[in-house]
Structure formats: C-alpha cells, structure tokens
Amino acid sequence: MIKKFIDKLLGKPAGKSSPLGKRVEVQVAEHRIDPDLLDDRAVKVVQTLADAGFEAYIVGGAVRDLLLGMRPKDFDVATNATPEQVKSLFRRAFIIGRRFRIVHVVYGRGREHEVIEVSTFRALLGSESAEQVSGNEKTSKAELAGKSHVVDAEGRVLRDNVWGPQIEDAARRDFTVNAMYYDPQRQLVVDYHGGLGDARKKVLRIIGDAETRYREDPVRIIRAVRFAAKLGFELEPKTRKPIQSMADLLANVPASRLFDEMIKLLQTGHSLASLAQLKKLGLARGIFPILDAMLTPEGDLHEGQRGQFVRLAFEDTDRRVAEGRGVSPSFMLACMLWHEVSERWARLREAGEAPVPALSQAIDAVFDARIGDISGRGKLATDMREIWMMQPRFERRSGNGVYTLVEQARYRAGFDFLRLRADVGEIEPALADWWEDFALGSEEEREALLEQAREADRQRRPPKVHRLPRKDAAATAASATVDSGEGGEGAASAGPAKKRRRRRRPAGSKPAATPSAE
C-alpha cells in the first residue's frame, strides 16, 4: 500500500515496476571477453578519464558485440564527467549535439582518423517531468533554447541533457543488450537489466514499457529492426507487439535522421535480412520513400531484372561489410533508385528529348520525389548523379572521351554500376567487358580496343544510299518530250524548243572562262 502511494506521488503508472535495475558485476571468468578485440584508443580514453578521478566504461553496442565474440565497428564510452570536463582532458575533443550533448575525441587525421564518442551518464526522467513544446526541433527552436529536458506533444524527447548516476543511465538506454558497461582495466562487465543473459539467448528486449519507450524516441522501432537483422535476435513479444501500431510516430522524426537510420539499416552487412525483418513487422512500406520506390506493395523485391539488380547490389554490399571493406551509401542508393530513374529517362526520350538532358531531368524528378531536401547534402547526391550520368557515356567508345571517362574519380563506381546492369541483362555484357579491358590495358591494347569499337560501329551502321540530285520539274518534262518525240508534225506542235539545262559545276572546281561573243 505504501509503495503504491509513493509510486502515485512519483507519477509512476499503477501495476508497473520501476525500470531501474539492479547492479550485477560480471567477472571475466563468466563474460569471457577477449581483450584482443578491444580498441587501444577507446581503452586510452577510459584510462585518461579514470586517471582524472572519473568513472568511465566502454558502453552499449560495443560491449554487446564483445560478449558475442565480434570485433565492434565503433567504441563508445560513458562517464560521470560532464562534456566540458571530458573536453578539457583531450587535445582534440569537440562537444557536439543539441538533443544529446556528447564529446567526440578524435585520433589521427584524414581517412585514418578515429572518433571515440564519449557521453555523460544521464538521469532517468519521465515525460511528466519534462517541459513540453507543441512543435519539433525546427519549429520550436526558440522554445528549446537553454532547456535541458523537453518533449513534444507526442512525448518524443527533443532534449535530454540532465546528468545522473549510472543506474539511471542504464535504465534510459533502449535494449537490455545495449545497456551494459565494460571496464577494460578491471575486465569487469556491469549489467543492470539481464543483458548478458538476453545476449546469450539471442533475445532483443526493450527496457521498461515498450509503448512509452517508442513514444520517447520512435527511431527505436527502426533500431529494433536493425539489431534483430544484424544479430539474428528474436524480438521479445512485449517489445514487438506495439511496433506496427506506433509506426505512425516515425512521421514526426526529422527526415535527415530517418534517412540516416535507413542507411545504417541497409549497411549493417545484413541488408536483405533487414528487408525481411521490415516486412515481418509490417514496416516495409510507408516509412522510407526510397524503399517505396524499390519494393512491391507487399514489401518484396520485384521479380525479374528489376528486383535482381537490387538484390545483387545488396549482396555485394553485405559481402564488402563482411570482408571489412568500405561501402558507399551513394552507390547503394543509386542502385535502389535506378529503375525509377531509368523509366523516367525512357519516357522523356520517347517524347523527343535528347538522351543526356533527358537523363538529367529524370534524376531531378526522382530526387524531388524520393529524397527531397536530403539531396542537398552535397556529396551524396553528387556521387549518385555522377554514377547515373556516366551510363550513356559508356555507350560512346571513340575519341578522347574514353580516356577522360576512365580518369574520373568516380569511374570505378560508375563501372561497377555498369557491370551490375550487364549481370542482369539490361545491357550487353560485352560492353562492360570492353570497358574493363580498356581501363586495365596498356596503350597498345587500348588502341586495339578502340579500333575494334570503330569496326563494330561501322558494321552496325546501315549502308549509305547514293541518290542523284533532284531534277527541275521543267527539265524533267523536256527530257521526256525529247526522248519520246520522233519529229514530224506532232513534235512541232508540242511548242517551242526547251532551253538546254545548264550542268551544275562540281563543288570546289574553278569556273570556266567566259566565251567571247561572235
């Protein structure tokens, strides 16, 4: 009775237990994390914070992957130091974010640089204790200024920058397998919500009430799909049940953030499994406009050439991720939207538009329809456009254009795209073979290939038909009269004799001398 009374005072729903868990320290003999899988720079960040007197742990997905015997792609650190305190301890550290203020500690430069993301333990605060605004991140900027904990009218968290103890930080994380902390110095895992057991059982379980957690951040729905596909985990029934009914909340998420989540979903190395998981949860259509362009109304890849093209692209992406090679979101998106671009391109050419301007217009139309202002992100849209605009250029294999094309920075992506088109039968495989041989060939081999292409063009051209110049109608009639006439009265009655038709001088010849008058 007393507990219920206290819960009521604290605004906790009746019949629902507190999401705060219980601290369990798991020793190395039980968790068996391999230290060789750790990132030296992440360990250095933890040690630097600990040496300064702060608590610090590797946290989240990195701990989950370590427990599963996988080398994490990214390492995040959680600490009780504030962002300003963290920044002061590192030479290259930057405070970023508004919704969540975090610190990026940067090591290295250029392509070899690495970012360790450091977050401060956050307090567990319900929506009833937050300030509320009627708009979103864009429409309520003035109201959000200077505030630490804010939600919108639907309960979605717009600001969450109130610091708290580790036990509360764990409770505000999304899934149990993502709410564990690892101290690399003591080789100790701290688990508040049974994440270790769920990881071993391959179960994805949300912390707290599922509806409340999805309302706080609808993107957790997409994260559930991603983790289930990537890890091969099953969603726990209470975690899965409200997903479809709450999917409409994703419409309130900024388009740029949703776009980023889609890219993550398809570049985990399990893109086809992610599509299957979306369909299973009823989310394949109506969430991402790009997927709407690519999938059938039932949420499947199309049959035949259209679907096979995307399938091969996804299989290639998954293979590259598995091999630890880089993947390009622009290439993947270009493959996903190619059929729609190609269809629009064909219609414009049929209407009389020249091929290259028609393709440019088709690209603009698809960007407007499927990507919107995300296309303004610069490099991503530019790379997609270059891949597409190269395709008609591959048809022309003469002159200096072939040399210019193979020297372009995006040539390899454009050629890989061409090869995919050949693999599904959209173009002749010989065209892709020719470009591969040309790109890799010596100067002599290239000259031979160009001559081969010229000869093939000559054979394809229809034979020229030589026609005599059209004769003047009057001259034609006179010729006919002369040819048919046999003299005599009939010929005389045909009228006066016609003037002799002057022969046309061949072009370029000099005029003859004018004869003198007699």
Automatic annotation (TrEMBL):
<feature type="active site">
    <location>
        <position position="74"/>
    </location>
</feature>
<feature type="domain" description="Polymerase A arginine-rich C-terminal">
    <location>
        <begin position="352"/>
        <end position="461"/>
    </location>
</feature>
<dbReference type="GO" id="GO:0005524">
    <property type="term" value="F:ATP binding"/>
</dbReference>
<protein>
    <recommendedName>
        <fullName>Poly(A) polymerase I</fullName>
        <ecNumber>2.7.7.19</ecNumber>
    </recommendedName>
</protein>
<feature type="compositionally biased region" description="Low complexity">
    <location>
        <begin position="508"/>
        <end position="518"/>
    </location>
</feature>
<comment type="function">
    <text>Adds poly(A) tail to the 3' end of many RNAs, which usually targets these RNAs for decay. Plays a significant role in the global control of gene expression, through influencing the rate of transcript degradation, and in the general RNA quality control.</text>
</comment>
<dbReference type="GO" id="GO:0043633">
    <property type="term" value="P:polyadenylation-dependent RNA catabolic process"/>
</dbReference>
<keyword id="KW-0694">RNA-binding</keyword>
<feature type="active site">
    <location>
        <position position="76"/>
    </location>
</feature>
<dbReference type="InterPro" id="IPR010206">
    <property type="entry name" value="PolA_pol_I"/>
</dbReference>
<feature type="region of interest" description="Disordered">
    <location>
        <begin position="452"/>
        <end position="518"/>
    </location>
</feature>
<dbReference type="Pfam" id="PF01743">
    <property type="entry name" value="PolyA_pol"/>
</dbReference>
<feature type="domain" description="tRNA nucleotidyltransferase/poly(A) polymerase RNA and SrmB- binding">
    <location>
        <begin position="232"/>
        <end position="294"/>
    </location>
</feature>
<dbReference type="GO" id="GO:0006397">
    <property type="term" value="P:mRNA processing"/>
</dbReference>
<dbReference type="InterPro" id="IPR052191">
    <property type="entry name" value="tRNA_ntf/polyA_polymerase_I"/>
</dbReference>
<keyword id="KW-0804">Transcription</keyword>
<feature type="compositionally biased region" description="Basic residues">
    <location>
        <begin position="497"/>
        <end position="507"/>
    </location>
</feature>
<keyword id="KW-0507">mRNA processing</keyword>
<keyword id="KW-0808">Transferase</keyword>
<dbReference type="Pfam" id="PF12626">
    <property type="entry name" value="PolyA_pol_arg_C"/>
</dbReference>
<feature type="domain" description="Poly A polymerase head">
    <location>
        <begin position="56"/>
        <end position="205"/>
    </location>
</feature>
<comment type="similarity">
    <text>Belongs to the tRNA nucleotidyltransferase/poly(A) polymerase family.</text>
</comment>
<dbReference type="GO" id="GO:0003723">
    <property type="term" value="F:RNA binding"/>
</dbReference>
<dbReference type="Pfam" id="PF12627">
    <property type="entry name" value="PolyA_pol_RNAbd"/>
</dbReference>
<dbReference type="InterPro" id="IPR025866">
    <property type="entry name" value="PolyA_pol_arg_C_dom"/>
</dbReference>
<dbReference type="InterPro" id="IPR002646">
    <property type="entry name" value="PolA_pol_head_dom"/>
</dbReference>
<keyword id="KW-0067">ATP-binding</keyword>
<keyword id="KW-0547">Nucleotide-binding</keyword>
<dbReference type="InterPro" id="IPR032828">
    <property type="entry name" value="PolyA_RNA-bd"/>
</dbReference>
<dbReference type="GO" id="GO:1990817">
    <property type="term" value="F:poly(A) RNA polymerase activity"/>
</dbReference>
<dbReference type="InterPro" id="IPR043519">
    <property type="entry name" value="NT_sf"/>
</dbReference>
<feature type="active site">
    <location>
        <position position="174"/>
    </location>
</feature>
